[in-house]
Amino acid sequence: MSMRDNTTEECPTFVTHLECSATGERHQADRLHGLSRAGKPLLVRYDLAALGEAIDKETLARRPADMWRYREFLPVRRAENIVSLGETATPIVAVPRLAAKLGGGELLIKDEGRLPTGSFKARGLGMAVSMAKELGVARMAIPTAGNAGAALAAYASRAGIEAYVFCPDDAPEVAISEIEYQGARVYRVNGLINDCGRIVTDGREAMGWFDASTLKEPYRIEGKKTMGLELAEQFGWDTPDVIFYPTGGGTGLIGMWKAFAELGEIGWIGSKRPRMVAVQAAGCAPIVKAFEAGAEHAEPWAHAHTIAAGMRVPAAIGDFLILRAVRESNGFAIAVDDETIEAARAEVAREEGLHLCPEGAATYAAYEQALSDGRVSKDETALLFNCGNGLKYPMPPVTRRLDCTRPIDYAAL
Ligand SMILES: *Cc1c(COP(=O)(O)O)cnc(C)c1O
Predict the structure, then answer these.
(1) How far apart, in whole angstroms, are the C-alpha atoms of residue 332 and residue 325?
(2) Would the CB of 388 count as within 6 Å of ligand 1?
(3) How far is it, in rounded angstroms, from Cα 117 to Cα 114?
(4) Exposed, middle or buried, 267 (CB in 10 Å: 0-12/13-18/19+)?
(5) Cβ–ligand 1 contact at 147 (below 6 Å)
(6) What percent of the chain is modeled with pLDDT above 90?
(7) Does the pLDDT at position 68 exceed 80?
């Protein structure tokens, strides 16, 4: 095949070092790292001046539309280490009928359910596995609500890396089966994601695992950062006024905020930034509680429960980074209950033909609530994130039947 391909051509890279997100301490690039020496997430830093010189918007626009078109902004040094399953740019779909019904402004949904393994976890784990390959990792492990494990399983198999996955035993059945089917070893754990995380931490040494937990390795953020680069490009190198993001560990929110900072630094976008809204479920809303309390860190949430499993993260190691982005952007954090999430999912499917995952539906529910309480105005263009494909989640059963051996009563249909 002689198609142009972002994953096979060599490309200059600009990573200078990794930086502790709490202390600013520098860590060497091109080495395997987990958390910083201070036990906090590491952020990848680039020579942005050189990056801005090396690439321009027109060159970028000629490349195929996938997340690897932003290679200069990404950490993978050598093309041969890129592990890809076709991370296509995801469409931004307008939902004008719902916008009119709510009396709001322009309402858009970025549909990340189109990505490999059916969720935006493909961006983060695709990047993490590529870097793990580049740095010689043989075995990875991850705690997951489902989607991260599915993405790790797929990319690790493709890279020839062994993967161990631990999920709460009430994780969606499809995800658990998918993880095993795509070549990982998956265990159901009778606890929450933090309990799964502890199993990974405690087993790291004995099992020789590289820990792919949210923010405990530096590259998933860089993968999720491509959501920000991509949506800015889709907006003509501008941004929407407000972004509603379903927040669990916060990788995507932190990653997008980093994307906008980097794009601003090289002058590709102006000084306008979207207001970042962290959406959580009422049954697990540590970030919302901390936001409202004016706290820098979140308290662990007791008895976390919600149908939106991707947001059931009682304690996020990057809590202070999420809160910082939300506050710097003049955004807010908002919680919606499960009943409202279910109703929102059904409404968007029925009215607009878009099948959101529960976490994606939560962003719609949150938008509706914020519009009615005035935290978002109808002058603002809002972008909601649908993070996964609705087909991976249970739907209400259908019981209507017809007997084709008898005359059909068409009037009764
Ligand atoms: C992982 C996940 C989230 C949370 O994403 P973060 O960027 O880690 O906060 C939300 N929804 C779904 C479906 C997920 O898989």
Answers:
(1) 10
(2) yes
(3) 8
(4) exposed
(5) yes
(6) 97
(7) yes
Report the percentage of the chain scoring pLDDT > 70: 99
Ligand 1 atom at minimum distance from 359 CA: 11
> Whose alpha carbon is nearest atom 14 of ligand 1?
310
pLDDT for res 4: 78
* Tokens read off for 47: 């020579």
Q: How far is the CA of 247 from the centre of ligand 1 (A)?
A: 6
311 CB within 6 A, ligand 1: yes
Local structure of 368: helix, strand or coil: helix
When pLDDT is averaged across residues 311-321 and rounded to a whole number, the result is 96
Q: Is the distance from the beta carbon of residue 250 to the nearest atom of ligand 1 less than 6 Å?
A: yes
Closest CA to 134 of 85, 87, 86, 77: 77
Partnered with residue 42 across adjacent β-strands are 20
The pLDDT assigned to 2 comes to 55
Which CATH number fits the domain 92-116+220-392, given the four candidates 3.30.200.100, 3.40.50.2000, 3.40.50.1100, 3.40.50.720?
A: 3.40.50.1100
Residue 359 near ligand 1, beta carbon < 6 Å:
yes
**Å from CA of 287 to ligand 1 middle:** 14
Residue 248 CB–ligand 1 contact under 6 Å: yes
Q: Which of 216, 311, 355 to mutate to test the pocket of ligand 1 (most atoms within 8 A of CB)?
A: 311
> Residue 1 pLDDT > 80, yes or no?
no
Terminus-to-terminus CA distance in the chain, angstroms? Answer: 51
User: What's the pTM?
Assistant: 0.97
Our answer on whether the CB atom of 213 is closer than 6 Å to any ligand 1 atom is: no
Cα–Cα distance for residue pair 373/389, rounded to 1 Å? 29
User: Is residue 152 within 6 Å of ligand 1 at its C-beta?
Assistant: no
Q: What is the mean pLDDT of residues 202-217?
A: 96
Q: What is the pLDDT of residues 356-366, one digit of tens each?
A: 999 999 999 99
Q: What is the largest distance, in Å, between two alpha-carbon atoms of the chain?
A: 77
Per-residue 3-state assignment (H helix, E strand, C coil) for 213-257 = CCCCCCCHHHHHHHHHHHHHHHCCCCCCCEEEEECCCCHHHHHHH
Q: Residue 87 pLDDT more than 90?
A: yes
Q: Rounded mean pLDDT of 53-77?
A: 97
Which helix or strand (DSSP H or E) is residue 128 part of?
helix 121-134
Q: Are the CB atoms for 282 and 365 separated by under 8 Å?
A: no
Q: Quote the ligand 1 centre to 231 CA distance (angstroms).
A: 18
